[in-house]
Amino acid sequence: MSLDTAAQTPAAKPHERLASFLADDLVAVDTLIRARMASEHAPRIPEVTAHLVEAGGKRLRPMLTLAAARLCGYGGPYHVHLAATVEFIHTATLLHDDVVDESERRRGRPTANLLWDNKSSVLVGDYLFARSFQLMVETGSLRVLDILANASATISEGEVLQLTAAQDLATDEAIYLKVVRGKTAALFSAATEAGGVIAGADEAVVSALHTYGDALGISFQIVDDLLDYAGSADATGKNIGDDFRERKLTLPLIKAVARADDTERAFWVRVIEKGDQRDGDLEHAMSLLARHAALDETRAEAMAWAARAKDALAPLPDHPLRAMLVDLADYVVARIN
């Protein structure tokens, strides 16, 4: 698709405009993903992988890699390898997360661990991590390998930190940010940074792309956590209060707990730390969030991170893709305006 056509294509959402602009690259990524998720000896691997890969996800992370590379003028083939790598890492973490969280639904469908079993989900996730490293090596770039290997380790650290922090009222906003940077933002920033590196962009541009991905990922996760209390089931695919019922100490609760009096703190200890939840507890939690303006402040933080993402793009070349990335940051927070 030409630059002019893609820039003028009317699409309801920025990620759809990105997909339209990057259509040929995305076809190549999907072809590569299908080829590399095959297994001659274990047919369950492509079965489990296809269930998740083809479940209708937006392909946001691989699109960030493709967009970053194209924005920096890359004309070679390896941005496709990196985009497939990012999608494999993301899919592997989802398979593992659903086992850890004992989830039963993902993107509106039964999870792989429910349809098959936990062992299959964990082992197929491991297989996808291995495939992702094969794809990285094929690019011939040690720096790209370093970026994505570090991101994979950071994702695991973030998930393990969340295990210990999620139900501990001592968890503060600094710890929350470490969790979010690990489990969400690390792959966003690696996706954008790797795209710049494979294109041979100068250090200022590579740094800007990393900052954009980091801030976008943090905003993305804060919005998800906010919508658990301020969204609608139709819009999010989740029931309001799922995080509360799962005793996850996300940013809105952290803000309310920090301002709790003794009576309120006793409530949070009972429902989050001890897991003794009763009828009416969610409604009471919502009233405490309102009393301490926790949702409004969480919304403001999500907006601030989105603004930081947009500001980071200033050193990048003037290009239709840069405008789309700016719009994408706005779109991430549009659901909470």
UniProtKB/TrEMBL annotation:
CDD domains: Trans_IPPS_HT (cd00685). Keywords: Magnesium, Metal-binding, Transferase. Its cofactor is Mg(2+). The keyword Magnesium applies. GO terms for molecular function: transferase activity. Its EC number is 2.5.1.-. It holds the Pfam family polyprenyl_synt. Belongs to the FPP/GGPP synthase family. This is Polyprenyl synthetase family protein. It comes from Plastorhodobacter daqingensis.
